[in-house]
Structures are given as C-alpha cells and as structure tokens.
Amino acid sequence: MKAICATDLSAASEATIESETCLECLERIGVEEIHLVTVIPSNVHAGMPGMHFEERREQALERYRRVVEDAGFDVETHVVRGTPHRRINGIAEAVGASLTVVGSRGKSPLENRVIGSTARNLARTTVVPLLVNRIEREADEPDVVREHLFQRVLYATDFSENAERAFEAFSYLRHATQEATLVHVETPTDPGLPEDDDPEARLTELATRLEDWGIETRTEVRRGDPADEILAAEAEYEPTTTLVGSRGHSRLRRLLLGSVSEDIVARADGNVMLIPPNRSA
C-alpha cells in the first residue's frame, strides 16, 4: 500500500511527518511506501527572490526522507511545480497511491475554519482517500492534535453508495482501530432513506461486522443538520478520526460534497478521512 504525504515544508507539515505515532499507525493499516510531495506554486518564477526553491525543497525533503526511512518505509520524493492540489492528485494517480495525507492547522478564531486552500481543494477533488491530519494552531512548535490516527473512529453514513464505500475502509483501518462510533443523521429537508427503512437496524448490521473484527462499537441515530450533528457527535465521543464519504444522498447530489464533508473537514477538532466515489461514479 502506497501513501502520498503532501508537505509545504512548514512546521505544521513537519509535525505530521515527524510524528512517530502517526507513522506507526500508517504502518499498521498496511502502508509500506510513502511518497513525499512538495509543490512550488506556478506563480513562483525562477527569476524571483528564492530562485533556488527546487534545490532548497529537495534538501528539506531529504531530511524528511531519512525520518520516514528510519521508521521502516520505502520513500520517494517529488518536488514539482504547478497548482498544488492538481499536482498532488496527479502524483497519487501516477504512483497508484491508496491514501493522501495532508496536515492542517486547528480552528481559526476569526473564521472558525481549519483548512488552507490546498487542503480545502484536495477535500473537493481528491481521487484517493484523503486523511486531513489535524495540527495544533497556536504553537511555535506545533504537534499533531491526536496521535493515534485510527484508534477511535467516528463513521458518519447516509447509507449512500459512497458512504458504503467509506465503510469498506475499515477492511484495513481495523488493524489500528479499537473503537468505532457509527452515526446516521436524519434530516427532514433531504431524506436519504425510504420511509419504511430502519436506520437503527442498518447501523446495527454494520456494527456487527466491526465487532466480528474485535472493534468495540456503538451506534447512534441523530436528527438535525448533518454537519452540525456529526460534529456534535465528534465533540461527545472524541474520536481520533472522523470517517465520511465525500458524496451522498441529496436532491442536489452533494449532501456529503461540500455542504457536509467539506464543513466537517473545516470545523472538526480531530482528524478527518474522506473517501471519494469510484472514478466511474
């Protein structure tokens, strides 16, 4: 299993790469090869101050390479130019990655937002599962907010095809997961299930599958705004990662695209893992 670790070489990105616990969690879910990627924006030209950006970034990535190699991974480095999220997605496809990891600072006191433009654009466009690793915001030497990436997982589902695809991520996450909370949010403005369907029964069926893997599981049906209720569940149960599909049921076909999943990525306290639809979907 291959993973992309995207970095802008900031202190926040460094926290993700140099966290031994995070690297240990990636190893547990089957990651063997890590591709370190940094993108020089296309509007930074060679004639500008800092014209040796490629060389400086290659040197920085070599330091990261040694850290990751010492943790037991095979490592490749990529210094490229272009639009960051497009180049990151392109490399993920080219190398056959199964996961992209990007670090993100914590909540902004001004905008109640946590993600920069690259992480936001990746959340909208990622072609492989995306893990947004939450980093401390107000710290000179920031650390990851929750070290054990997949120890406690909050899985949010509307029972759409993409939500089911997100649930299948437990097939490899289970090697690092001890506890799971399964949540469905009923909303009268955009119902996703037939009237005669029983969401509690469907959650119980999913819980049984996880419990067969030795994962302690709880289920909960909530009512209200999907993003608000999922975030309320996160505040209550304090998972290390919230797992969602990036598209779900909606009259506009974007209940979990932008209006919910992007909001969760923006406002969650902990890590968020987004599972995109199949490319053919």
Automatic annotation (TrEMBL):
UspA domain ranges (all copies): 5-132, 150-276
Coiled coil: none
InterPro entries (UniProt xref): Rossmann-like_a/b/a_fold (IPR014729), Universal_stress_UspA (IPR006015), UspA (IPR006016)
Residue ranges of the TM segments: none
Pfam families reported in the protein's UniProt record: Usp
Family from the record: Belongs to the universal stress protein A family.
Name of the molecule in the record: Universal stress protein UspA-like protein
Lineage: Archaea, Methanobacteriati, Methanobacteriota, Stenosarchaea group, Halobacteria
